[in-house]
## 1
Amino acid sequence: MSLVLDNSVALAWCFEDEQTPAIMAVLDLVTETGAVAPQLWPVEALNGLLVAERRGRISAPLRARLSGFLQALPITIDTAMAERAWTATAPLAERYRLTAYDAAYLEVALRLALPLATTDAALVAAAQQAGVGLVVAG
């Protein structure tokens, strides 16, 4: 496990217009060494694909293929999210003015002492303030 993976990066892998060399390098790293994500990651990724389909950005068959692609990646789901939501995630959300969802990624990165792969500007700023390393910055 090499990093904590945020959906801003994972979903960018699914859309050619969002792919950059840095984003694709993270895909190579995740494929080689794996990643970890909070328990909300699969639902959040699926929602991003469903929204893209509803907006006409992708077709239903492509959404299904992309769902399979993301599901097949070596991403370990951190199941401690629910038990830590009130005690660890909420204070991070408050301190750094993050959504609870973004704070969950930061909490995992802090707890596991792993860098965070994200392009989300608020999460980048919070990670920098918290001393978390960044793999991809917004």
## 2
Amino acid sequence: MARNYRRLVAFELADQLAIAVYEATADFPFHERYGLRGQLRRAAVSVPTNIVEGAARDSEAEYLRFLEIAYASAREVEYLTMLAQRLGFLRPPEAGDLTSRTGRTAAAIYALRRALRRS
């Protein structure tokens, strides 16, 4: 079953979140290149990537599993954003924007999962 992930609100939000995380972490300290900055970026990219990979799977169960991973990665971004703010790597406005984007993304993924389970 071919699914067009590009038409999903969850994918669009996840894609925008990944870009926002890259922009927000551009000025992290150099010593965090492979630390928190790298982890935050990997988690953010994992969200849309898992939506895309899940959409390419044949079975509904596999699709749902990848959406679960995408949802979990969004929650990871949420925590890492809070940590980055507490460590002084993100200013409150930047962290607030990322947290808001992450919440909207996670909610869209959750709604998609719920709708697929009902069908």
## 3
Amino acid sequence: MPVAIITGASKGLGRALAEALAARGWDLVLDARGAGALEEAAGAVTRHGTRVTALPGRVTDGTHRAELVAAAWRLGGVDLVVSNASALGAEPLVPLAELPPAGLRRALEVNVVAALGLVQEALPLLLASPAGAVITVSSDAAAEAYGTWGGYGASKAALDQLAAVLGVEEPGLRVWAVDPGDMATDLYAAAVPGDDGPRPAPAAVVPAFLRLLDERPASGRYAAPSLLEGR
């Protein structure tokens, strides 16, 4: 069975993607900071009959990243790495004039440095897979100038560039940066408290990710709404 590592998998998009892959027979290594929420998510995924290893920890910790890859190796290897764990930099979001430098550093460490570190750790196993792939979860804030989203958007723009270069440097892999669009998640609620307008559930976006895995288009940046068209 193929094996995926998914960070930020205890809720939101990470959990929805884990459940969808489990339903397709994937074995999974799941990461999140909160042990309780991660255990609950792993229990839901395990009901599909898949093998799941849940490892709470921080993706900014190199030892934790090595443990994630080692767990995947014990399941058979690494066919997919999904860098979904994200930090906003400030909760709620604030204008750049008010953004603490420590908050920006936090966003860069979680969203960019840790994502690259995990790929570096997993790269030998990814290259050994006939279908090795990396998915980095981007944002429209990486490409559009939205007030208060500057720090987070800058980190996601940096992640997009890393993914683009990785796709060039590692032609044996598929490397997809995916902008999922608006979703009803705890991350958005923390970013903009009180904005409870209607947004799609993360599960509604998952078919876009599955389409990438099914069709394996060229490495690049993709927007989920475009991938969902005609499905």
